[in-house]
Amino acid sequence: MTTFELPVTVDHDNYQQRVQLEEVNYIVRLRFNTRIEAWYVDIFDTNETALLHGRRAVLDWSLLSQFGYITALPPGFMSFFDTSTRQVPATRTDMGTRVLFLYTDRADVVDLTEAEIQALFGI
Fold first, then answer.
1. Are 57 and 95 in contact (CB under 8 A)?
2. Could you give the CA distance from residue 15 to residue 101 in angstroms, rounded to a whole number?
3. Which residues, in sequence order, are CB contacts of 49 under 8 Å at separation 6+?
4. Please, which pLDDT band fits residue 77 given cuts at 50, 70 and 90?
5. Helix (H) or strand (E) holding 101
6. Cα separations (Å) of 105 from 21, 54, 78?
7. Which end of the chain is more exposed for a tag (fewer CB within 10 A), N or C?
8. Listing from the earlier edge strand, what are the strands of the sheet with 50-56?
9. How many domains, in total, are found in the chain?
10. Cβ-count burial of 47 within 10 angstroms (0-12 exposed, 13-18 middle, 19+ buried)?
11. What is the distance between the alpha carbons of residues 47 and 115, in angstroms, rounded to a whole number?
12. What is the pLDDT of residues 5-42, one digit of tens each?
């Protein structure tokens, strides 16, 4: 299974980057809300049209799975993984180190059973 880590920087509370997922370019923005101490994700197409806005970065949960009807979104699985196994949400400074932002291509999970998908992606 091909899962790769999306680059993350904690140098800024609000930043965006262009990423290519399954041969399609997207803009992914990560924002840290200092009031509630949580990271949020937005996904845009290359014209900066919002495809997904204001999704909280929840550990071991597929960020995209419930939005399959939005065909412009990446078709794979996007999630946040706590490498420490403590299951503590990312802080302002450990997103990208302790907590990884991961993407798995759709083709790599099509043969998995429903139970395997739930176990892997928390859906």
1. yes
2. 14
3. none
4. confident
5. strand 99-104
6. 8, 22, 9
7. N
8. 14-21, 24-33, 38-44, 50-56
9. 1
10. exposed
11. 37
12. 998 887 888 999 999 999 999 999 999 999 999 999 99
Structure tokens belonging to residue 89? 């949400």
Helix/strand/coil for 108: helix
Please tell me the predicted confidence (pLDDT) of residue 114.
Answer: 67
Cβ atoms of residues 109 and 117 within 8 Å: yes
Domain, as residue range, for 62: 3-121
Give CA–CA dist 65/48, Å, rounded.
22
DSSP 65-80: GGGTT-TTS-SSEEEE
Report the amino acid identity of residue 52. L
The per-residue pLDDT for range 102-111, each reduced to its tens digit, is: 998 887 766 6
Closest CA to 18 of 26, 10, 7: 26
Q: Is 19 exposed, middle or buried (0-12, 13-18, 19+ CB in 10 A)?
A: middle
Average pLDDT, stretch 63-87? 89
